[in-house]
Design goal:
This protein is mainly alpha-helical and about 240 residues long. The chain has 8 helices and 4 strands; from the N terminus they run βααααααβαββα. It has a single domain (about 5-235), classed as Up-down Bundle (Fumarate Reductase Cytochrome B subunit), CATH 1.20.950. The chain has helices at about 10-35, 40-65, 80-90, 100-125, 130-160, 165-170, 185-205, 230-235; strands spanning about 5, 170-175, 215, 220-225. It has a two-stranded antiparallel sheet with strand order 1-2. A two-stranded antiparallel sheet has the order 3-4. A hairpin with a 4-residue loop joins strand 3 and strand 4 (about 220-225). Helix 1 packs antiparallel against helix 2 (about 40-65), helix 2 runs antiparallel to helix 7 and helix 4 packs antiparallel against helix 5 (about 130-160). The longest helix is centred in the middle third of the chain and has 30 residues, at about 130-160. It starts with a strand and ends with a helix.
Length: about 240
């Protein structure tokens, strides 16, 4: 008997998922096609700032959001993750209404690595020498985690005959009525979207190509958008 489709993923979680997916893809593309003095490099950094703000919002939502959005709902022990991975290869893995143990660790890793990559990028801009190597290491590690996560999504969808990519669009999955969340929290989701759009517009409008910097709207915080040359200048002086 086919189970009914129930609401599992609230709107803020879905909005964040797709904004992060698109933002990271564009950031990687800009990084590959641009040198540090081009507009595309500056655009890469601006999008990074926007992603950073969204990550902070998602972390907050991970504590106050709906059932399956909360971190508490998908904290799994290393033993359970190992058991899940083993089950995936033997055909004994269990279906989960929310995040399974494998995707749970991928989500935590992506949030942590996204934040670390953005912080390291800002360190580069402000002339902190360790920022460049940290930025590259965290960015490539993030790309690897994303690739593994995509493979896991495809495998899970085939294994359980359930398109979880579509579920992250509609917010619904097959399940028991008792497992459904009561609201998709549309207002909070629209707030996520509004912050992303308005912050992006403000940062691009405040972009000064000659100085390669932008100003954060409302805060009047100036952020350089290129690798600082201060360390190189110091070497020349020495």
């Amino acid at each position: 008997m086919t189970k009914p489709r129930i609401l599992v993923w609230d709107f803020p979680t879905r909005v964040f998922h797709w904004l992060l997916t698109g933002g990271l893809a564009v950031c990687f593309l800009f990084a590959l096609m641009a040198d540090e003095h081009s507009f595309w490099f500056s655009a890469h950094m601006i999008l990074g700032i926007v992603i950073g703000v969204l990550v902070v919002m998602r972390v907050v939502w991970g504590f106050v959001g709906s059932r399956y959005a909360r971190f508490a709902s998908f904290i799994h022990s290393p033993v359970s993750v190992m058991g899940y991975v083993q089950g995936a290869f033997t055909g004994r893995d269990e279906r989960h209404v929310g995040h399974n143990p494998g995707s749970s660790y991928a989500i935590f890793a992506m949030l942590l690595l996204s934040g670390l990559t953005i912080v390291a990028g800002l360190m580069m801009s402000f002339g902190i020498e360790a920022g460049e190597e940290l930025h590259a290491a965290s960015a490539y590690t993030l790309a690897a985690v994303v690739a593994v996560h995509v493979v896991g999504v495809v495998w899970y969808s085939i294994r359980h005959r359930e398109n979880i990519t579509v579920s992250m669009i509609t917010g619904t999955k097959e399940g028991e009525l008792k497992d459904a969340i009561s609201s998709s929290h549309p207002i909070v989701g629209l707030a996520f979207l509004a912050v992303a759009i308005l912050l992006s517009i403000g940062l691009f409008q405040n972009f000064e190509p000659s100085r390669q910097q932008t100003t954060v709207p409302l805060l009047n915080l100036v952020i350089p958008l290129g690798e600082s040359e201060s360390s190189g200048e110091d070497d020349d002086i020495d």
